[in-house]
Every structure is written in structure tokens, then in C-alpha cells.
Amino acid sequence: MSPATFVPLACAVIIGLGALGACIGIGLMGGRYMDGAARQPELMDRLQTKMFLLAGLIDASFLIGVGIAMMFAFASPFGS
Q1: Of 33, 44, 75, 78, which sees the most CB atoms within 10 A?
Q2: How confident is the model over 9-33, as a mean pLDDT?
């Protein structure tokens, strides 16, 4: 078996684990935000700003993984 036969499997693992990690991370962060906002409602605006910033960074790391997986899938780095 050549290494090119494992490229689709590697792409699926990269995208799948990246999506799983991003979903778990955003879910935990959203829960902690709701917890913190319920405890101290006066800090809700500052917490919301930080939550959206972190959600964007978490999502960006997943999209970078998708980009790398697409590069492997379509650029064919191991030949044909």
C-alpha cells in the first residue's frame, strides 16, 4: 500500500477530531459563560466580548485544520 491510499483517512481524521474538539471547547466555554453571567450579571458585557473572541479563535483553529486536510486531499502531496 502506498501512502497515497491513506490520505482520505487522514483527512477524515483531521476534520473529524478538529470538529469534535471545537464543538466540545465552544460548548464548555458557553456553559462557563452562562455560569459566570448568572453569578455576576454586571460583568456580562465583558465576559461576552471575551467569549466571542475565544469562540472565533477556537473556530479558526478548526478551519485551519480543514484547510490543511483539503490541501492534502486536492494537492496530492504524495504523488498520484
Answers
A1: 33
A2: 94
